Amino acid sequence: MTHLLKITNTILIGILADSYTCIEKIPIVLGSKMMSDGSERFNFATIEKVKIKVRFGRLNDIQMQNLLNLLKSNFVFPMEFWSIDDKINKTRNFRLVDIPEPVLINSVNNKEQYNELDVEFETVG
Fold first, then answer.
1. N or C of the chain: less Cβ packing under 10 Å?
2. What does the angle CA 82 – CA 101 – CA 123 come to, to the nearest 5 degrees?
């Protein structure tokens, strides 16, 4: 594994340990119909959704601004991600679930300040 996330040609840095979760094979329900016996039938899409949650941390102001600019530059972007299930890198089109707001963290000695950012991505199409 060389990296967890990569958008276009930019490898995303600052991912905190144990903060990367990748849920694959989420079925996309296109429709449902109630049958006469009371059971419900579902119509599923041929592709499945992927959701990724990650926390970026220990980023200085410049790194945080670069990350935010990259994330906000496009509504939909191709992203390479590490598949926990298959143990390989995969590429899909993702979008941000919401616009993240960074949180400022002070170090114990108050000499350094770092930013943290929680981000959630989901596949499109």
1. N
2. 35
Pairing state between β 113-123 and 88-96: antiparallel
Q: Which helix (H) or strand (E) holds 2?
A: none
DSSP summary character for residue 16: P
Quick: pLDDT tens for 21-56.
999 988 888 899 999 998 999 898 888 899 999 998
Structural domain including 86 reads 5-123
What's this model's pTM, rounded to 2 decimal places? 0.79
CATH of the domain at 72: 2.40.30
Residues 70-108: tens digit of each pLDDT: 888 778 889 999 998 889 999 999 998 877 777 776 666
